[in-house]
Automatic annotation (TrEMBL):
Ranges where the Tyrosine specific protein phosphatases domain occurs: 79-123
InterPro entries, per database record: Dual-sp_phosphatase_cat-dom, Prot-tyrosine_phosphatase-like, Tyr_Pase_AS, Tyr_Pase_dom
Protein's UniProt name: Dual specificity protein phosphatase family protein
Pfam families per UniProt: DSPc (PF00782)
Highest taxon listed in the record's lineage: Bacteria
Native species: Gilvimarinus xylanilyticus
Amino acid sequence: MIEVTKNLFVGDQLAYESKVRFSEGWCVVHACKEPYHRQALGYTGRGAPKSHPEYLVATRDNRLILNMVDVDNPAYIPKEIIDAALLFIDQSLSAGKQVLVHCNQGMSRSAGITLLFLAKQGLIAQSSFVEAEQQFKALYPPCDMAMGIRGFLVKNWDSYIQAK
């Protein structure tokens, strides 16, 4: 778990379970379907029912729980999930909370969301995704995004950065 800017941390599932889960004052983005989205909605099949109102995003107290898998195809990264995560991070930090963004291994989904948040805030390069990614990797060396989240960021970079 690494603090990439004041009160914003990126990490893996173990960091959440061992350092944050039972601590006060934290807000958490679970950027992983397993096990948190499954637990929140209580589904037992392969995936959540698409008709469920929390199919993409569930909120439980101070936690945002995303139905997000680490895929190679950016088409499987819904913009609604990324938008919800960015808003949650912003609101939580503005409220003076510490925020952990994590996925299972802490390398791909959580890194991509946090990189985009930092760029939107002007805390790392905005001119190009490649430059921002290089700066982020200096802040968070475990970053190793899968093609899905990376492709989503490349494709949508300009629209997110221009929509401050």
